[in-house]
Amino acid sequence: MMKELRLMKGNEALAEAAIRYGADGYFGYPITPQSEVIEYLMAERPERRTGMVVLQAESEVAAINMVYGGAACGKRVMTSSSSPGVSLKMEGVSYIAGAELPCLVANIQRGGPGLGTIQPSQADYFQATKGGGHGDYRMIVLAPASVQEMSDFVSLGFDLAFKYRNPAMILSDGVIGQMMEKVELQPQRARRTEEEIIQECPWATTGKPATRGHNIITSLELDPGRQEKFNLKLQKKYKEIERNEVRYEEINCDDADYILVAFGSSARICQKAMDIARAEGIKVGLLRPITLWPFPYKPIKTLAQHAKGFLVVELNAGQMIEDVQLAVAEKVKVEHFGRYGGIIPAPGEVLEALKSKVIGG
Amino acid sequence: MHYCPGCGHGTTHRLVAEVIDEMGIQDKTIGIAPVGCAVLAYNYFDVDMQEAAHGRAPALATAVKRLMPEKFVFTYQGDGDLAAIGTAETVHAINRGEKFVIIFINNGIYGMTGGQMAPTTLEGMPTSTSPYGRELDLMGNPLKITELVANLPGAYFVTRQSVHTPANVRKAKKAIKQAFENQAKGHGTSFVEIVSNCNSGWKLTPIKANEWMEQNMFPFYPLGDIKVDGKLVK
Amino acid sequence: MTEEIIIAGFGGQGVLSMGKILAYSGIMQDQEVSWMPSYGPEMRGGTANVTVILSDERISSPVLNQFDTAIILNQQSLDKFESTVKPGGVLLYDPNGIVHPPTRKDIAIYRIRAAEFASKVGLAKVFNMIVLGAFLKIKPIVDESNIEKGLQKSLPERHHKMIPENLKAVKIGKDNVELMQEV
């Protein structure tokens, strides 16, 4: 079959991928720089293409709770927003995690805190990987670094979410959301039938037949003893995810003296910085975490045995660096370079920072 | 059931369950429970149930009904859930004409958390957060959310009932049945308010609470249909 | 082959769509492409710019501070991007509205009087394609046939009747680009 190639924005690729994955519902609220997701979906008439439900909710809060309702029915449902809107969704994400529901949330990050700017940022790393909502829960976090991955991670995110009955997030930013690249689209998959959903999700509220008791989707428990047991069950699940689902990419790390660690758009900028450095004779490698949770501690720990130093490059004031420091465990130097509030560094700035903070410093 | 003796929740639960039984739709019904006294409603209905975050039941119900249009969907919410924290979800779901049933219990107080002021608390009514009675200039006015939503084009059936006498119970059941039948026919939102007592929150005996409700609640929240078949009747 | 380009001008001059057509043409000849716009309130009536990269290899950074070619359509953009052209690189500009022409000596400078030609031949809507034609004369990185395919892909079907006009504009650009300074 001929590959279906298109030039698309990251946001559009995400939306098209959702239709092609056979998603049942999208519930969102416009916010820059991610409004193309719902605009694209509305223009595509997915209710005619696949029967997918798309609804512009009255708020981000309503949208994430629509996701809760749909996920509780075993449906493949998702939402997307940008940083301030994702903050509003965090209560719902906590309930979704607490009710063990699968869903997909995309965050096309912009500068913060507060209303901030509408330009790209990666300052929601802590929110995505360390909590965001209340209570002991974890969210599977995927960080796409290309428009192709914006498309591919829709299916990966949904698959992981359903495998573990857990919310998954695509943590992207204004660069990846707004840029256009060549993307190879997945073939159209059929949406699951009601029978398939009942088989795959026997826990879902699909209507109680006489043959089973009623299904209840809730995150409420009045008895602390039982809640503790439930927490332990969640933690066991999270350990399993940590064992099975770590994803990352290593480029030129084998002989590298210095390692750049970056995710998403920053990793793309670092790749160029690495190329320039190599042309100058400096052996630089790049480790790109693809899952931000679970985080690739082990490969970083391994690299720390040979590398002379690490530079963590993020569009924030230093968030992922804490995880890199945990992995490196003070074996070698770990420094941070970031730009904030919507400013994107050029590759040359990254190389300068590597030279001044790690190599010369 | 965990409800206080004399509370209207138990009766209202029973009426909803009877209607589901009589219509033979147990296997096709999804209920959404609120946060408030009815937070555990999911334990009392033998249908598939979801427990919503505070105020968000209409958002959940919107998705459930749109994703499974052949099912019957209802929310069951109190005054704090529906008319304070969840006002936006209530108004917008009804304004979109979402095709589900909302059962709204209005007892003018936050029962579960220990008797704090609700958006529907009457003027002068004491609660733990309006200990000297609700003062309008300080605390704002009681909200007639039912009249408000009746004016939305998406509302198909809006009625206010009570369950404190056998005659009222019969009327309330008829209204609830009407609401579910509207859903069967694919009409817009059906909204059934039940004005109820909260004898423990009001610090009255059940009988005294019903008397107080008739004397104080009903004049401000008059019983009867407000919108029928998409037309305002009051 | 890797070509890193910045296109900059006023919002409404077709900066973003010129970049999009170029990127689509690259896909048509099996290349890797990226198109990264500046976005935000400055787009509405202010300046707009887009970084376009065409390459035979996987593209690393879509965000750059040095370019092989700068295509400049107003004074603000010239002031901002003249210094970002790599030594030996190309700067192409439309003199319309330019008070202070480029001054660098280590780059090749070309001029296309696109606004003038566009109004003269009544092709104001495809002004940007005249500029694109001028660029392709200097750097023939995509075939004319792939430009046509790129137009088909990037224009909505209802605008396909405009394709001949677009191609005509490309030719005007090719025929009228002026070399102002060699490296």
Question: Topology of this structure?
Answer:
The complex is a heterotrimer of chains A (361), B (234) and C (183).
Chain A: E1 5-9, H1 10-21, E2 25-28, H2 36-44, H3 46-49, E3 53-56, H4 60-72, E4 77-81, H5 83-98, E5 103-109, H6 125-130, E6 140-142, H7 147-164, E7 167-173, H8 174-178, E8 180-184, H9 194-200, E9 216-217, H10 224-244, E10 248-251, E11 258-261, H11 264-279, E12 284-289, E13 291-293, H12 297-304, E14 309-314, H13 321-328, E15 333-338, H14 347-359
Parallel strand pairs in A: 2-3, 2-4, 4-5, 5-7, 6-7, 11-12, 11-14, 14-15
Antiparallel strand pairs in A: 1-8, 6-13, 10-12
Chain B: H1 8-23, E1 29-33, E2 48-51, H2 57-67, E3 72-78, H3 79-85, H4 87-95, E4 101-106, E5 109-110, E6 116-117, H5 136-139, H6 145-150, E7 155-162, H7 166-184, E8 189-195, H8 199-202, H9 206-220, E9 224-228, E10 231-232
Parallel strand pairs in B: 1-2, 1-3, 3-4, 4-8, 7-8
Antiparallel strand pairs in B: 5-6, 7-9, 9-10
Helix pairs in contact in B: 1-7, 3-4
Chain C: E1 2-10, H1 15-28, E2 32-37, E3 47-55, E4 67-72, H2 75-81, E5 85-93, E6 108-111, H3 114-120, H4 127-138, H5 144-154, H6 163-176, E7 178-181
Parallel strand pairs in C: 1-4, 4-5, 5-6
Antiparallel strand pairs in C: 1-3, 2-3, 6-7
Helix pairs in contact in C: 1-5, 3-4, 4-6
Describe, in short, the structure shown.
The complex is a heterotrimer of chains A (361), B (234) and C (183). Chain A is an alpha/beta fold and 361 residues long.
What is the CATH third-level topology name of the largest domain in chain A?
A: Rossmann fold
> Of all protein chain pairs, which has the greatest interface, and how many residues does each chain bring to it?
A-B, 40 and 35 residues
Q: Spell out the CATH superfamily of chain B.
A: Thiamin diphosphate (ThDP)-binding fold, Pyr/PP domains
Based on helices, strands and strand pairing, what is the structural class of chain B? alpha/beta
Q: Tell me the β content of chain B.
A: 15-25%
Labels describing this entry:
heterotrimer; B: 234 residues; alpha/beta; Rossmann fold; eight-stranded mixed sheet; globular; C: 183 residues; Pyruvate-ferredoxin Oxidoreductase, domain 3; seven-stranded mixed sheet; 6 helices; 36% helix
Description:
The complex is a heterotrimer of chains A (361), B (234) and C (183). Chain A is α/β, with parallel strands linked by helices and 361 residues long. Chain A is 43% helix and 20% strand. Chain A has helices at residues 10-21, 36-44, 46-49, 60-72, 83-98, 125-130, 147-164, 174-178, 194-200, 224-244, 264-279, 297-304, 321-328, 347-359; strands at 5-9, 25-28, 53-56, 77-81, 103-109, 140-142, 167-173, 180-184, 216-217, 248-251, 258-261, 284-289, 291-293, 309-314, 333-338. A 7-stranded mixed β-sheet of chain A has the order 3-2-4-5-7-6-13, sandwiched between helices. In chain A, strands 10-12-11-14-15 form a 5-stranded mixed β-sheet, with helices on both faces. A two-stranded antiparallel sheet of chain A has the order 1-8. In chain A, strand 11 (258-261), helix 11 and strand 12 form a beta-alpha-beta unit. Chain A is globular, with a radius of gyration of 21 Å. Chain B has 234 residues and is of the alpha/beta class. Chain B has one domain (8-232): Rossmann fold (3-Layer(aba) Sandwich), CATH 3.40.50. In chain B, helix 1 (8-23) packs across helix 7 and helix 3 (79-85) crosses helix 4. Chain C has one domain (2-181): Pyruvate-ferredoxin oxidoreductase, PFOR, domain III (Pyruvate-ferredoxin Oxidoreductase, domain 3). Chain C contains 6 helices and 7 strands, in the order βαβββαββααααβ. The chains are: A alpha/beta (361), B alpha/beta (234), C alpha/beta (183). Chains in contact: A-B, A-C. At the A-C interface, strand 1, helix 8, strand 8, helix 11 and helix 14 of A face helix 1 and strand 2 of C. Strand 9 of chain A pairs parallel with strand 2 (48-51) of chain B.
